[in-house]
């Protein structure tokens, strides 16, 4: 069996904000009835987080749960734990109409850090980044690709996209973060 590697193996760019590929991140798509007590319990067990509301991401001791659609969550956990989380959640939801899939190796994650992280993202998306606060998650487009982003804190934006477009995402984020490109 081959060793898991992230899409860009930790690529990094230093500009007026820093852009880093986050490395291996465990990501699980959970689809089902988000009002179900069994789903809430499975999410709490997997991440320690509560079920997020629309446009939210919640944080627990073992990970995060992000609202992706009325019947879909993205669970963000330790990469090595993702298969175990899928197994446990699948068993816990065996009597529910639900789907639990490990999508870790199909996604890439980037962190944009710096006081102007919202500005860097704003250059590439139609989303109003000025209203984004920690705890909010937004599905949108970044240039020509579908993506989701949230703020870990006021100076760290996290962006998730498909692995197949990771190099493109890194390149456009890096271009948007180049020194001299600050919005004044």
TrEMBL record:
<dbReference type="Pfam" id="PF04268">
    <property type="entry name" value="SoxG"/>
</dbReference>
<protein>
    <submittedName>
        <fullName>Sarcosine oxidase subunit gamma</fullName>
    </submittedName>
</protein>
<dbReference type="InterPro" id="IPR007375">
    <property type="entry name" value="SoxG"/>
</dbReference>
<dbReference type="InterPro" id="IPR027266">
    <property type="entry name" value="TrmE/GcvT-like"/>
</dbReference>
């Amino acid at each position: 069996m081959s060793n898991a590697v992230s899409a860009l193996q930790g690529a990094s760019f230093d500009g007026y904000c820093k852009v880093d590929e986050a490395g291996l991140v465990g990501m699980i798509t959970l689809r089902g009835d988000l009002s179900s007590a069994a789903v809430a319990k499975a999410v709490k067990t997997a991440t320690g987080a509560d079920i997020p509301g629309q446009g939210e991401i919640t944080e627990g001791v073992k990970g995060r749960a992000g609202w992706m659609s009325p019947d879909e969550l993205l669970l963000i956990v330790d990469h090595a734990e993702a298969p175990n989380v899928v197994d446990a959640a699948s068993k816990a939801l065996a009597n529910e109409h639900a789907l639990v899939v490990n999508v870790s190796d199909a996604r890439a994650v980037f962190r944009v850090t710096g006081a102007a992280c919202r500005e860097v993202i704003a250059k590439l998306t139609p989303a109003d980044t000025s209203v984004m606060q920690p705890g909010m998650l937004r599905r949108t487009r970044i240039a020509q690709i579908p993506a989701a982003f949230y703020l870990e804190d006021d100076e760290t934006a996290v962006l998730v996209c498909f692995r197949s477009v990771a190099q493109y995402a890194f390149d456009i984020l890096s271009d948007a973060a180049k020194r001299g490109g600050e919005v004044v």
